[in-house]
């Protein structure tokens, strides 16, 4: 019996848990600053709306460019160098926030942090996809993705709370400390001898190892981009929307968003393994749309939390489904490319969301801005529906021909 086909292969190994913790810390260093820097820049440097949007977009674009290089380095086996260099650059940029005396220097540090983060954020999920049993890939990447989405949810809450209660300097110092904690975890992971093949390949993959860009990644990348536009609006403008809507604790949105993600993740991963992404994408998008619309009518903490739960259930199901989908579309040696494309489309969506939605908010209001952001999810449903229709139509004639031949025989 081939052990690789055993569905009871262990998922929660020491290596997998260490990777989850490392990835959680990595994304906490990002998210704790991502939502607080716009408010800090506005207060400390009287930053304009354009400069505020650049804090998010410049980071995202530098991370995107960094990942193009990172995916090539991973294919060449440069994981150790890539991970350590990325961690050092990220740490240096985070320390640089403390000495930022103007908006220009702050934006330079955001670019530098994007370069380092792009390197490290490609490495950890690629390592995870190589230690997860293939039969449990959806479940495994779902749990691993929980470390990312959990950080994306509780990080802003921690950052906003610290900025309000302690100030910017303690926030920077805590972020630096978390960054430092990643180094010994990375050393533990990299000190182990690599396995000959952590995740087996199918016969089709073994016969033909593709080279260059994989076009199968385009569709899920586009869908991930559209989903991330909405999250860009939440990350960049939640604090400002809370002020506009007279909500005293807007950071609670991220806390309850995280709770919803924790609730849905164990179920969504198993549903993916059994039925695939087709069972999750549309229901998840509808939940996210409901969450955004509820947010625009929030007048109390209770209504804010209800919107967070709806959005979190949808986001928690969709985000790991797209990542697993992309990983399964490629040969294992291209998993660095798949993870790079996943995070690039995510960061690009956040950057575009920050810029475009910021312009909409300036012309209308932050509440109206979130209603406009829901349009990207409607577009996601339309594109995904067309894709299913086209693929279903393309698959229909062979099945019909086969049945006709059987009847004729």
Structural notes for this entry:
- With 409 residues, the chain is mainly α.
- 81% of the residues lie in helices and 0% in strands.
- The protein has 14 helices and no strands.
- Helix 9 runs antiparallel to helix 12.
- The protein is globular.
- The N terminus and C terminus are likely disordered.
Main sheet? Answer: none
Unreliably modeled segments: 1-6, 194-207, 395-409
Mean pLDDT: 84
Quaternary class: single chain
State the separation between the terminal residues, measured CA to CA: 37 Å
Q: What's the helix-strand series?
A: HHHHHHHHHHHHHH
List keywords for this structure.
single chain, 409 residues, mainly alpha, 81% helix, globular, disordered N terminus
Write the layout of secondary structure elements.
Elements: H1 14-34, H2 36-45, H3 49-75, H4 79-98, H5 103-131, H6 137-165, H7 168-191, H8 203-207, H9 218-244, H10 252-275, H11 281-296, H12 301-328, H13 335-363, H14 366-408
């Amino acid at each position: 019996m081939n052990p690789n086909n055993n569905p009871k292969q262990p998922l929660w190994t020491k290596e997998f848990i260490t990777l989850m913790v490392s990835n959680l810390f990595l994304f906490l260093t990002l998210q704790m600053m991502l939502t607080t820097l716009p408010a800090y820049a506005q207060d400390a440097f009287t930053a304009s709306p354009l400069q505020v949007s650049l804090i998010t977009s410049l980071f995202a674009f530098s991370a995107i460019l960094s990942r193009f290089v990172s995916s090539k380095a991973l294919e060449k086996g440069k994981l150790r160098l890539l991970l350590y260099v990325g961690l050092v650059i990220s740490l240096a940029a985070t320390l640089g926030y403390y000495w930022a005396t103007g908006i220009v220097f702050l934006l330079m540090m955001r670019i530098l942090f994007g370069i380092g983060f792009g390197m490290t954020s490609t490495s950890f999920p690629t390592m995870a996809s190589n230690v997860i049993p293939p039969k449990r890939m959806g479940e495994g990447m779902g749990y691993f993705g929980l470390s990312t989405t959990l950080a994306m949810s509780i990080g802003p809450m921690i950052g906003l709370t610290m900025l309000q209660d302690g100030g910017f300097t303690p926030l920077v110092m805590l972020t630096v400390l978390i960054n430092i904690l990643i180094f010994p975890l990375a050393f533990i992971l990299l000190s182990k001898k690599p396995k000959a093949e952590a995740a087996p390949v199918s016969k089709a993959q073994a016969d033909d190892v593709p080279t260059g860009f994989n076009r199968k990644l385009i569709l899920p990348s586009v869908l991930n981009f559209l989903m991330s536009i909405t999250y860009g609006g939440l990350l960049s403008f939640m604090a400002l929307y809370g002020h506009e809507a007279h909500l005293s604790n807007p950071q609670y949105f991220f806390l309850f968003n995280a709770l919803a993600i924790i609730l849905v993740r164990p179920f969504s991963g198993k549903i993916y393994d059994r039925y695939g992404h087709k069972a999750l994408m549309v229901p998840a998008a509808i939940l996210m749309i409901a969450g955004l619309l509820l947010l625009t009518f929030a007048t109390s903490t209770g209504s804010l939390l209800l919107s967070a739960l709806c959005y979190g259930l949808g986001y928690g199901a969709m985000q790991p489904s797209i990542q697993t989908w992309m990983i399964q579309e490629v040969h294992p040696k291209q998993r660095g490319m798949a993870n790079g494309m996943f995070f690039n489309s995510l960061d690009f969506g956040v950057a575009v969301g920050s810029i475009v939605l910021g312009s909409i908010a300036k012309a209308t209001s932050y509440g109206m801005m979130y209603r406009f952001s829901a349009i990207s999810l409607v577009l996601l449903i339309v594109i995904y529906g067309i894709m299913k229709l086209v693929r279903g139509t393309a698959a229909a004639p062979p099945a019909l021909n086969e049945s006709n031949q059987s009847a004729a025989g």
